[in-house]
Amino acid sequence: EHQRWAFSTGWEGGVGNLKEGEFTYISADGKRTSNNFEEAAPPLPRNHRVYGEDWHLFQAAGADDLEGWQYAHCFTSQIWCSMPTQFSFVRRRVWQREVHGNPNSHPE
Questions:
Q1: Three-class SS of the chain
Q2: What is the rounded CA–CA span in Å between residue 69 and residue 73?
Q3: Amino acid 28: pLDDT
Q4: pTM to 2 decimals?
């Protein structure tokens, strides 16, 4: 999930705040992009099930931001921080789910 800082509205994602070609949600492989979570989330693979809760926020060990955000100057930055600085204009966080194959299923 990606958001950009706007002086008038604060942190915001979506069409109104992101630049052209930027999306609120991007799949881990970068192939699915959208400003709608369900459209960017990869589908559950065939003969797999979700283990535990469905989508939830990833919390990195030692992260300072309780909502899982990482902050940087731009989305292409190589350096991301767990707390915003005066030069933080974008932020991101990771949604994840644990998926397991069904051992009792047979490929068709």
A1: CEEEEECCCEEECCCCCCCCCCCCEECCCCCCEECCHHHHCCCCCCCEEEEEEEEEECCCCCCCCCCCCEEECCCCCCCCECCCCCCCCEEECCEEEEEEECCCCCCC
A2: 14
A3: 86
A4: 0.82
